[in-house]
Write a structure and sequence with these properties.
The chain has about 950 residues and is of the alpha+beta class. It is built from 40 helices and 26 strands. It folds into four domains: about 325 residues, Cytochrome Bc1 Complex, Chain A, domain 1 (2-Layer Sandwich), CATH 3.30.830; about 160 residues, 2-Layer Sandwich (Cytochrome Bc1 Complex, Chain A, domain 1); about 180 residues, Cytochrome Bc1 Complex, Chain A, domain 1 (2-Layer Sandwich), CATH 3.30.830; about 200 residues, Metalloenzyme, LuxS/M16 peptidase-like (Cytochrome Bc1 Complex, Chain A, domain 1). The strands form five sheets. Strands 1-2-3-7-4-6-5 form a seven-stranded mixed sheet, with helices on both faces. A six-stranded mixed sheet has the order 13-14-20-15-18-17, with helices on both faces. Strands 23-24-22-25-21-26 form a six-stranded mixed sheet, with helices on both faces. β10 and β11 form a beta hairpin. The N and C termini lie far apart (about 70 Å). The N terminus is likely disordered.
């Protein structure tokens, strides 16, 4: 059965007539397997395009992932970063989308491409500078016809979300989520998107990639990872080049080579479309055949680079970076689809499964290191196993290395208990079930399988194959790979000066938001049956049952699988009880009156259960999750931990030493420093980073007072949240037995929340720190919480920010290329008596700091007015609300959040009605009174050598701060 054109306007027929005439048919190449929990259908169109379809009717949406079997390893050695460039550029549209007049724009686009080729082939710096000036001028001429981010604007208008892409070594993936009634529009958009793309606005996008590279160079974890990959994989692209490319190659891109890469790899027989969501498979494959049969197949380039050479002798390297030291050990193992792949994944879990692995029990639990773990890296051309560790105070990285190798010795000697293997298999089964609850989780499996060229039955049966692996086989595999030489990288505390990515001359482009291509107008004109909003109803979506002693059970039935979660929640946290976080840390290292700490970890893992003690600023949760069949045993163990935990003074002494070392290291970590800085700007001396436990207070802690914190906690008012398959009355009966006290529970302590600072004029708090990229926050108080303002706040957030198609993104990133990461949000308080906070963020190359602040302040204080944009965002919000059904695992979290705001029932219903009735005049009236011209608190972390503080003072009074000013001693 072919779909008719009945629901499609006649004016649109011509846009996909060529695709319709190219129908070539399809075949089912893999019918759903009986044991496939996703019931995946796999088709192949006659042009070679692979299609994976899996139905999931939990929410009225579907997710799309389009995967190309080409990634960073396929970059030419002299043009690294090319695949990643292409990923960015495939959001720019083509002749039909992204241009107001393609024929006029094309003249300039062609000239820009030629100029970049001259630039690529020219070595003389002065000549390259001259060519770049021409590129800059030509880019301005081309930009007058460009419609920036029209793809994202269109997806947003249709109610889509999660528009993104990523480049991995072996694949590139493009993804988004849309309402289930937009399948026809999705097919039209995506089939067009990958047809003859136009790489417009390349110059600002190049600067954005520079910013992404700057951010990467500020990541201590990425630095050590790249170094060990280099040692392990040598000249193979896994080791010799990164997805972002080298700085040298970033300076001289080639549009011609990017086009060649696209034409070679982006062919139908090298790509796959995967959809998961609320649809019928038989209808969707017809839509896909109708629109994607026009894609051409081609001869796929053969990968000819040499494979990684075996490691024949130990190799070591050292890098320096301020703060936490770390060591990573790497062994070369086997690539995907090898006969040892499943055994290697099991081996990794025996080493580190977060609970009862050798590293978990022997190193982390016994606090022989600050922290440690392992992870496998199994790719198409090579595989490896990594072990990592961070030292305690006075411990060398070489000592940590030796401790990690000891765990491998135990593994190779078979010194692990027999019960651990079936427990690991159970863990894999749990993870699989959780992943399949969401569209994203389902497609993560599918995209990986296609990128790794795995037959689907092998993917479905992987856990079954794991079940058949014996202990003897695992030991043999461990000896096969870990008795060989290895590579090791040390990250030591020391100075680090990030390499600089040169800032080329770039003139901002003008953006006309009123422009829209005929293609987009026609897509938006396609009619579809509306989806009715689905709001949460008490009694239908959840139940609340009174328990003994004034507590309540919030209950949601799990319709998907046999995994339950249970939480005991308190409306108080570290702000009200300052020692709770340390109590949680001690409990993690402690046992009970019946079991040692290690025995307790083993007991949890053997049950297929997890225990958590989560402490937030104003809430605490004692949670447990696991298999419904083991509920009683899990609840008994939960009760044992809550009521019979014991701590050891020696354990606490070591824990304190580790905590103090981690605190010292954190004060050298840019992201942590920036967090402390912006909190200081908000609250001054009342910042959580200054009111937290001091080092002296931590040193003075005792076991009795920390275990006492746990015992005292249960005497306060609390509730239970349960999601599972057990009937509500049975859960209630079991929890009533768990409650041991008959004494009236203590009322929740008054919430401790400092008031936001109220600046009278712009204030700039600045910390000088050596980074490639400055981090900037612009914030101001948004007044007391008022539910009546929520509809207009949501409208403002969508109008001003609104993701990649929003004003902030377009002006700061697309028009000015000032930031890779930039966003804005009017953040609403979590509590009825709390304050709102308006905030924006910029991550920008340090020498662009002042320009970025100037441009962003201008946007905040002179928000552009556009009736066209307002119409688009209202349509977007309409579609978002229509598919905003809350998943079963998230219902209770939403209900509790509404209760904290003093609201009864789901407030989204009335918010939706008011948003749909709102006018642009109301939006700008709200903007004028609540946002425009408000004095700002500006926080900046970046290097003084690249920031002109004299110019900075033009935008506010600057206060230079030291790190010790914003952290407690």
């Amino acid at each position: 059965m072919k779909l008719s054109y009945r629901s499609i306007p006649l004016l649109f027929v011509s846009l996909f007539a060529s695709a319709a005439s190219a129908f070539a048919g399809y075949k089912l190449v893999q019918e759903p397997l009986p044991n496939d929990l996703m019931q995946v259908h796999i088709y192949e169109l006659d042009n070679g395009l692979t299609v994976y379809l899996t139905e999931n009717h939990e929410t009225p949406t579907f997710r799309s992932e389009i995967t190309v079997r080409a990634g960073s390893k396929d970059d030419p050695a002299d043009v690294t970063g090319l695949a990643h460039y292409l990923e960015h550029l495939l959001f720019k549209g083509n002749a039909k989308m992204g241009s107001s007049d393609w024929e006029k724009e094309k003249v300039h686009i062609d000239r820009i491409s030629d100029l970049y080729e001259e630039h690529f082939n020219t070595e003389d710096p002065e000549e390259r500078a001259r060519i770049y000036e021409e590129i800059n001028k030509e880019s301005q001429l081309a930009a007058q016809y460009a419609i920036p981010n029209e793809f994202d604007t269109l997806i947003s208008a249709l109610g889509g979300s999660g528009v993104n892409a990523y480049t991995a070594p072996d694949r590139t993936v493009y993804l988004e989520e849309l309402p289930s009634n937009r399948l026809e529009q999705w097919a039209v958009i995506e089939s067009n998107r990958f047809s003859d793309p136009v790489f417009r606005l390349f110059q600002p996008e190049l600067e954005i990639v520079y910013e992404e590279k700057n951010r990467a160079m500020d990541s201590k974890d990425r630095l050590i990872q790249e170094k060990i990959f280099e040692l392990l994989y040598g000249d193979h692209p896994y080791g010799s080049q990164t997805a972002l490319g080298s700085i040298e190659h970033l300076k001289k891109p080639s549009l011609k080579k990017i086009h060649e890469f696209f034409n070679a790899h982006y062919v139908a027989n090298n790509m796959a479309i995967a959809l998961a969501g609320d649809f019928e498979v038989e209808e969707v494959i017809e839509i896909i055949d109708e629109h994607f049969s026009s894609w051409k197949s081609g001869e796929i380039p053969e990968f000819t680079r040499p494979m990684p050479a075996p490691i024949t002798e130990k190799k070591a390297a050292t890098i320096t970076y301020p703060g936490e030291e770390n060591v990573i050990i790497g062994f070369d193992t086997a690539p995907t689809k090898s006969e040892d792949e499943q055994a290697l994944k099991l081996v990794d879990m025996i080493l580190d499964n977060a609970n009862a692995g050798l590293i978990n029990l022997n190193l982390n639990q016994q606090q022989r290191v600050s922290s440690a773990g392992s992870f496998p890296y199994i790719r198409n051309d090579a595989g490896s196993q990594f072990l990592w560790g961070a030292p305690k105070e006075g411990q060398t990285l070489e000592e940590v290395e030796a401790l990690l190798l000891e765990q491998l010795d135990l593994l190779m000697a078979g010194e692990f208990e027999d019960w651990i293997l079936p427990a690991i298999v159970t863990d894999f089964k749990k993870s699989e079930k959780l992943a399949l609850e969401t569209n994203a989780g389902r497609l993560r499996v599918i995209s990986s399988s296609f990128g790794e060229k795995k037959a689907w039955p092998d993917v479905v049966n992987e856990i079954s194959r794991m079940e058949s692996v014996t202990k003897e086989q695992l030991v043999a595999v461990a000896n096969k790979y870990f008795s060989k030489p290895y590579v090791v990288t040390y990250r030591k505390n020391g100075d680090y000066t990030p390499p600089t990515v040169p800032k080329p001359k770039f003139d901002p482009i003008d953006i006309d938001r009123s422009k829209q291509s005929e293609f987009v107008a026609d897509v938006l004109a396609i009619e579809s049956d509306p989806i009715e909003p689905d709001f949460v109803e008490k009694g239908t979506d959840y139940q609340v049952v009174d328990l003994a002693n004034g507590t309540q059970l919030y209950y949601v039935e799990n319709p998907a699988n046999d995994l339950f979660t249970l939480s005991k929640v308190f409306e108080m946290g570290s702000s009200e009880k300052r020692k709770l976080s340390m109590a949680s840390a001690l409990l993690d290292k402690s046992g009970t009156t019946k079991r040692s700490a290690s025995e307790l970890k083993k007991a949890w893992y053997a049950l297929g259960a997890d225990f958590s003690f989560s402490v937030g600023n104003h809430n605490t949760s004692l949670g447990v999750s696991g298999l419904e069949e083991n509920f009683d045993e899990t609840l008994a163990l939960y009760s044992e931990v809550l009521h019979e935990s014991v701590g050891e003074p020696d354990v606490l002494k070591e824990l304190i030493a580790i905590q103090l070392k981690q605190k010292e290291d954190a004060m050298k970590e840019p992201s942590v420093i920036f967090n402390a800085l912006r909190n200081y700007a908000r609250y001054g001396e009342e910042s959580p980073f200054l009111t937290a436990l001091s080092s002296d207070e931590i040193k003075a802690l005792t076991v009795d007072e920390l275990i006492g914190e746990l015992n005292q906690l249960s005497k306060y008012k609390h509730d239970y949240l349960y999601v599972g398959q057990m009937p509500v009355n049975e859960v209630a009966a079991k929890l009533n037995k768990l409650e041991r006290t008959k004494i009236a529970l203590l009322p929740t302590p008054e919430r401790v929340q400092p008031k936001l600072h109220q600046p009278q004029s712009n204030e700039i708090s600045y910390v000088d720190y050596e980074t490639a990229q400055s981090q900037i926050r612009i914030e101001f108080p948004g007044g007391d919480f008022d539910e009546s303002e929520l509809p207009m706040i949501e409208t403002f957030n969508e109008y001003f920010y609104g993701g990649m198609s929003g004003i902030v993104f377009q002006e700061m990133r697309e028009a000015r290329a000032l930031a890779y990461s930039v966003w804005a949000h009017y953040l609403v308080s979590d509590y009825a008596d709390g304050e709102n906070l308006v905030m924006g963020f910029i991550g920008t190359q340090a020498d662009k700091t002042v320009d970025s602040i100037a441009a962003y302040l201008d946007l905040w204080d002179e928000m552009p007015r556009s009736t066209d944009r307002f119409a688009i965002i209202k349509n977007s919000l309409d579609n978002q609300y229509r598919v905003s059904k809350i998943g079963f695992r998230d219902v209770l979290g939403a209900v509790k959040s509404w209760e904290r705001l003093g609201l009864e029932g789901d407030p989204r219903e009335h918010r939706y009605e008011e948003i749909m009735d709102a006018s642009i005049e109301e939006l700008f009236s709200f903007y004028d009174s609540e946002i425009q011209g408000k004095p700002k608190m500006i926080s900046i972390l970046g290097p003084s050598a690249a920031i002109d503080e004299t110019k900075l003072q033009e935008y506010g009074e600057v206060t230079d701060l030291k790190i010790e000013d914003i952290f407690v001693d």
